[in-house]
Amino acid sequence: MKKTIPYGRQNITQEDIDTVIETLKSDYLTQGPKIKEFEVEFAKYCGSKYAVAVSNGTAALHLCAMALGVEQGDKVITTPITFAASANCIRYCGGEVVFSDIDPDTYLLDIDKVRALLEASPKGTYKGIIPVDFAGRAVNLEDYRKLADEFGLWIIEDSCHAPGGYFKDSNGNNQTCGNGNFADLSIFSFHPVKHIASGEGGMITTNNEVLYEKLLELRTHGIVKNDNKYQNSLEFAQGVENNKESNSENYPGWYMEMQDLGYNYRITDFQAALGSSQLKRADDGLERRRELAKEYFTNFADKDYIKGQSCDIEGHAYHLYVIEVSDRLGLYNYLKENNIYAQIHYIPCHLMPYYRNLGWKEGDFTHAEEYYKMCISLPIFPTLSNEEQSYVIERINSYYEA
To answer: What structural domains does the chain harbor?
Structure first.
């Protein structure tokens, strides 16, 4: 097959294009109505009360850490098998990242190891946990909420891989990623390889009104534009001299205050318009991902050279389909020679030079490091054809059976 097959690819339809063009022709390219529309639609999709659209998933993580008050020396626990931003957001605020190992069967942060870490230190040592819905498999946040409450911790759910994913709670109900029932804050990414693409972009969901209001401020330079929240006097805002009386009890329309050190982490209206258009097809894309995942799982279930693979499990969103193999490097290069561009997710964060320089080393997390030696992510995206997937499977089988 001459056509290149990547591990992930966006799907842009004519409706997407028309929606973006319409927005480009409107009065607003940024800070306009499309952003709020996208936020409302996405909150409804997740089942949360509030949503805040931002420039990307990393910005979403950073704003969450800021809104929760992470500061110098605060210790926060996360997984080493994730994109670096899940950990970096804590470092941005001066906090200390504490990694904990994964469950080798689920590839998720192992809650038993997190509990052991917490029990080994006095209460108050740690401030929060950032579990990651890795590859699209939803973390059981009900269990994590109980643990967090026991030790006085907050939770940021990194759900970049799992819009539409869910887990079953103790009552058998579906708990959708980002619904705010257990995590204080949840974040999503709209990078082109994700379920919903807006070029770049991200979203934060929450059920906490105080955190929601704080996020809105921090997203735009820490600026407040609300008469009830202003700190400077009315006379100052109006520019009225001390010996003159104001002729109005209202702050003037131009007035605003920077009350905190925030950032410009806004998304544009045309990105939000694209996101809204893509959101309409999110369930269809998710269904297709699950079909592809089932086909991989079925084909590799009885192969002795497949040491592990993503599970065929209800609620999985399948941003990635991961298999574990021997001679991973050989397979990666062979697939590339055959125009199949698989990917590796991820190099353990604690072994990146930055984190090595902070004291982490090989041997710290056996399961994460063993996983890295064998993992490879296969092509999975809604427009991947059955023929293309069959070719990928055939090439993998051919490599090992040869």
So the answer is: 5-221+262-279 (3.40.640.10), 282-401 (3.90.1150.10)
Reported pTM: 0.97
* Gap between the Cα atoms of 115 and 147, Å rounded: 7
125-155 tens-digit pLDDT: 999 999 999 999 999 999 999 999 999 999 9
Alpha-carbon distance of 87 to 348, in angstroms, equals 11
What is the C-alpha to C-alpha distance for residues 286 and 232, in angstroms, rounded to an integer?
A: 50
Question: 359 exposed, middle or buried (CB, 10 Å; 0-12, 13-18, 19+)?
Answer: exposed
In sign, the C-alpha dihedral spanning 67, 69, 72, 76 is: negative
Residue 281 to residue 284: CA distance in whole angstroms: 5
**What residues does 248 pair with on adjacent strands?**
none
Sign of CA dihedral 84, 90, 94, 96: negative
Rounded CA gap, 154 and 128, in Å?
5
Q: Residue 50 has what DSSP assignment?
A: E
The CA distance from 301 to 283, in Å, is: 27
Q: Which residue type does 157 have? A: E
- pLDDT for 80-116, tens place per residue? 999 999 999 999 999 999 999 999 999 999 999 999 9
- Pair of tokens at residue 217: 């401020």
| CA 299 to chain CA mean position, Å | 29
Q: What is the largest CA-CA distance in the chain?
A: 92
What letter represents residue 57's amino acid? G
Contact yes or no for 203/48 (Cβ under 8 A): no
